[in-house]
Amino acid sequence: MNKPNLRVAALAATFGLLTGCATTTTMSPTGRQQVVGGVSQPQLDQMGAQEFAKLKAQKPQSQNPRERAYVNCVVDDLVQQLPSQWQRYRWETVVFVDPEPNAFALPGAKVGVNTGIFKVARDQDELATVIAHEIGHVISNHHAERYARAQNAQAGLTLAEILGALAGIDPNAVGQIGGAVAQTGYLLPNSRTQESEADVVGQQLMARAGFDPRKAVNLWQNMIAEGSARPPQWLSTHPDPQARLGELGRRAGGLMPVYEQARAAGRRPKCG
């Protein structure tokens, strides 16, 4: 076989492995088909707890009792509206002293919120938008999905490097090109899908908990105003900001009956 054919074989093998290695198919909360595998939920929970412990050891934590009570209140109200399998966890929340306006949630029921988020989340509903979105990643099994996809991508790139070496191609060059292809064509699009899905799941969750789903639009307007220049959308893990605002606004209208029903049932958060 000549070298050009070997290059074709290497690329074909890469893409075959990128789509064929994961072992389990499941459904997300929005009905999207997901491919997961290679790690169990208890293992994910353990990894999440370990990473959270590392962060707590490395980053300063807020000693402001008002900040901590505020964030814990929002998390507690959201958790009460989670599906039963997620309510059984003992959720842990930490406020980190960090100017970056960010928050995250990890498997194992861990929630981290940076003090910088208060610059853009200016009331309890806007803060609930951020936290519900991050919890949405956890309850939508996004970490398991990313784990499986990363495994598949790495397997494909390893084989491509081996075949490239047999064809006389520099393995490092194959790895760099293959890594760029996997990142832009395989991993990042999935991340954008996950971000959009976390928006859906999070906005539904905050409405059920009695937080105003319309405030999701305000929150992302604040984030856009606070943010700096973005990379091109095809290199971003987040949906286009203006498209996102439009989706959040349209969805909020449909969620108003859910929000009003929650309020009528006495779910009226008083966190801050």
Radius of gyration: 21 Å
Taken in chain order, the helices and strands follow as HEEHHHEEEHHHHH
Strand content: 5-15%
Taking the sheet with the most strands, its summary is: 3 strands, mixed
- Overall residue-averaged pLDDT value: 79
Describe the protein in words.
The protein is 62% helix and 8% strand. With 272 residues, the chain is mostly helical. The protein has a domain at 37-144 and 189-264. Helix 3 crosses helix 5, helix 5 (124-139) packs across helix 7 and helix 7 runs parallel beside helix 9 (241-264). The N and C termini lie far apart (70 Å).
Summarize the structure.
With 272 residues, this protein is mainly α. It is built from nine helices and five strands, in the order H-E-E-H-H-H-E-E-E-H-H-H-H-H.
Q: Which keywords apply here?
A:
272 residues, mainly alpha, 3-stranded mixed sheet, two-stranded antiparallel sheet, 62% helix, disordered N terminus
